């Protein structure tokens, strides 16, 4: 991403989480801060997001993307709940964007570290201040550019304890990284104490997609490139499994599994479409 500018894709993701709170019933990912964090500045963008209610003229691509983003956040927080029950005391959000977990944290002993590009993090903090959302106890910010700065060094300087069992969420970030940056972060996570874990999402390469999805892939890739954040990294499920050989309990879910888990028996059209995007969790 461009050095001096906050992430535009982080805003798009946050707008969809906010739209989910307004339009979709039942709610799959409860986030009472998703709308307030946007303040008044992005209300017009929020108004333009489609409503998938029966009878409404929904835009299927946009609705499918919203379902994916909602499922991704829900899956991460479901996995975190399990990790906390198993002894995790630190939660690190890598590329946190406008994620609001720290403001809803129900676990008194869980410390939260938000790691993000300095420009995105500064913008988020301005939005929080404008919306008068108080700084939650237990949250620490750690600004890092994954491509050229040391994640371990920045986390250590922020008070991260490497002896504690830790859960990492790395949502919507991997496709924007180089393979070297991805591997450096995976090596760091793999060096954490037993019981630590990670959840991240990734996209499959164009060559393995059916022709109609190749067109959707090209269109999304063009839009994120135009936003200054081009995709650079794709994996097939077997390729990503090879990158994670130090981990166990791999769960790698596609649209079919996520629809069954989170969107079954709905009256509206909220569900994932296509096979490109996948969400994965793994433990040490
Ligand atoms: C699509 S947004 C996802 C935000 C958030 N995880 C969510 O799900 O709402 C991508 C995030 O990755 C961060 N990011 C991208 N490249 C980065 C880099 N080189 N260093 C640090 N953060 C980066 C952006 O600042 C942004 O917050």
Strand-residue fraction?
5-15%
Note poorly predicted spans: none
Query: What's the average pLDDT?
Result: 93
Radius of gyration: 18 Å
How many helices? The count is 10
Distance between the termini: 30 Å
Shape: globular
What is the count of β-strands? 7
Query: Quick one: biggest sheet?
Result: 7 strands, mixed
Assembly state (oligomeric): single chain
Structural class: alpha/beta
Overview of this protein structure:
This protein has 284 residues and is an alpha/beta fold. Helix content is 40%, strand content 14%. The protein has helices at 8-23, 43-47, 60-85, 101-104, 118-130, 151-157, 179-190, 211-226, 237-243, 255-262; strands at 90-94, 111-116, 139-143, 166-170, 197-203, 248-253, 277-283. The protein has a seven-stranded mixed sheet, sandwiched between helices. Helix 1 packs across helix 3 (60-85). The radius of gyration is 18 Å and the shape is globular. 40% of the residues are buried. S-adenosylmethionine is lined by residues 1, 7, 9-10, 13-14, 95-99, 116-117, 120, 144-147, 171-173, 176. S-adenosylmethionine binds next to helix 1.
Write the layout of secondary structure elements.
Blueprint: H1 8-23, H2 43-47, H3 60-85, E1 90-94, H4 101-104, E2 111-116, H5 118-130, E3 139-143, H6 151-157, E4 166-170, H7 179-190, E5 197-203, H8 211-226, H9 237-243, E6 248-253, H10 255-262, E7 277-283
Parallel strand pairs: 1-2, 1-4, 2-3, 4-5
Antiparallel strand pairs: 5-7, 6-7
Helix pairs in contact: 1-3
Bound molecules: S-adenosylmethionine.
S-adenosylmethionine binds at residues 1, 7, 9-10, 13-14, 95-99, 116-117, 120, 144-147, 171-173, 176.
